[in-house]
């Protein structure tokens, strides 16, 4: 991942990833998107090592993440303006806690990593603009260009969602947008400003080492829940295991087409540490009948734990919006990837991509 635009792709990750949110279908705002880089990177071991955090400091970071991650995760479905407001609030809360936890050298290095991660979007930060002594007119011109980039990225997302563009083509066009923005930004800076950026970013950091950029998975809820198969459990009790949680409804045809994939995962990886949990959230009256759900489970050969979410307590806790959706959770309880809809819809290699992520997580210490 290039340091000059380290997290630019993260700002538009929906174009090439598998977890589109309704917020990304909204019209871009007058300000360019700024990825929540602090929220994303502070949870990763590689960043903890770079900052030389003690075990006590890591515990403190995890405490505040437990406080902010649920709100952050559920905000993915909000309109862009409300989502941005939530992210700003959560980032400020996280930054305040980090200011109390980190020593001066660690705070300085974290600031450098943040500027690196923002890439061209670093000029959304007042202290960067001040250090660069950038004219207001130039900054506004660049911001306007960034908004146009966001608009084009949104078009790619919409074309991908509608099937007019495949993931490979979308990824290639996104790369062109990234390169165009890098060149525009670089050409606009004076030699002195480029030197100043070096003092703001410090030693280059290899962002490709970062594995965790998503929130902690929400905990499983018990209200209105009946475990139809397997013993009741919690994600906290499953720490150290890789977990696949999928929401489905047994009469949903798209769900039915995903079930064999979950069966195959359970068959192939259960002895390697994978736990699969199905959450049947009813859509029809038949799907509210435990006996009919259980009969369908037997017919579909589901051998892993399944719970019936009659009051939608888990559906709401996860802010789920679609049947089927499957979430992959790593051994530390962080979401790593999720997929809405059929994984192999119209030839999309979704199951293969999800399987690769599972194998990667299972191989991690």
UniProtKB/TrEMBL annotation:
A family per Pfam: AhpC-TSA
Positions in coiled-coil regions: 139-187
Annotated keywords: Coiled coil, Oxidoreductase, Signal
Keyword Coiled coil applies: yes
EC number(s) given by UniProt: 1.8.-.-
Top enzyme class: oxidoreductase
GO MF annotations, alphabetized: antioxidant activity; oxidoreductase activity
Gene3D superfamilies per UniProt: Glutaredoxin
Signal sequence annotation: 1-23
Thioredoxin domain residues: 211-363
PROSITE patterns, sorted: THIOREDOXIN_2 (PS51352)
Full protein name: Thiol-disulfide oxidoreductase YkuV
Lineage: Bacteria, Pseudomonadati, Planctomycetota, Planctomycetia, Pirellulales
Gene name of this polypeptide: ykuV
């Amino acid at each position: 991942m290039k340091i000059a635009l380290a997290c630019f792709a993260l700002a538009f990750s929906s174009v090439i990833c598998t977890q589109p949110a309704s917020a990304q279908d909204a019209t871009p705002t007058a300000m360019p998107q700024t990825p929540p880089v602090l929220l994303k990177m502070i949870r990763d071991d590689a960043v903890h090592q770079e900052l030389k955090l003690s075990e006590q400091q890591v515990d403190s970071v995890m405490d505040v993440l437990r406080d902010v991650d649920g709100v952050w995760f559920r905000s993915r479905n909000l309109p862009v303006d409300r989502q941005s407001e939530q992210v700003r609030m959560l980032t400020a809360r996280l930054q305040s806690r980090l200011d109390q936890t980190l020593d001066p050298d660690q705070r300085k290095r974290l600031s450098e990593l943040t500027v690196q991660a923002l890439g061209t979007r670093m000029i959304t930060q007042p202290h960067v603009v001040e250090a660069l002594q950038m004219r207001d007119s130039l900054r506004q011109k660049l911001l306007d260009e960034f908004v146009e980039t966001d608009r084009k990225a949104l078009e790619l997302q919409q074309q991908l969602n509608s099937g007019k563009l495949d993931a490979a083509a979308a990824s290639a066009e996104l790369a062109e947008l990234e390169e165009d923005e890098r060149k525009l930004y670089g050409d606009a800076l004076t030699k002195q400003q480029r030197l100043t950026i070096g003092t703001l970013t410090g030693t280059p950091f290899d962002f490709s080492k970062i594995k965790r950029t998503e929130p902690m998975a929400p905990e499983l809820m018990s209200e209105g829940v009946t475990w139809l198969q397997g013993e009741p459990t919690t994600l906290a009790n499953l720490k150290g295991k890789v977990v696949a949680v999928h929401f489905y409804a047994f009469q949903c045809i798209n769900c039915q087409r995903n079930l064999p994939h979950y069966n195959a995962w359970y068959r192939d990886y259960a002895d390697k540490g994978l736990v699969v949990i199905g959450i049947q959230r009813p859509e029809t009256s038949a799907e509210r009948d435990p006996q009919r759900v259980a009969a369908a489970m037997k017919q579909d050969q589901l051998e892993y734990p399944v719970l019936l979410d009659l009051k939608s307590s888990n559906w709401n806790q996860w802010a789920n919006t679609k049947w089927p959706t499957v979430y992959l959770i790593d051994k530390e309880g962080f979401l790593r990837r999720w997929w809405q809809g059929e994984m192999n819809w119209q030839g999309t290699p979704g199951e293969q991509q999800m399987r690769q992520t599972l194998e990667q997580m299972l191989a991690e210490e």
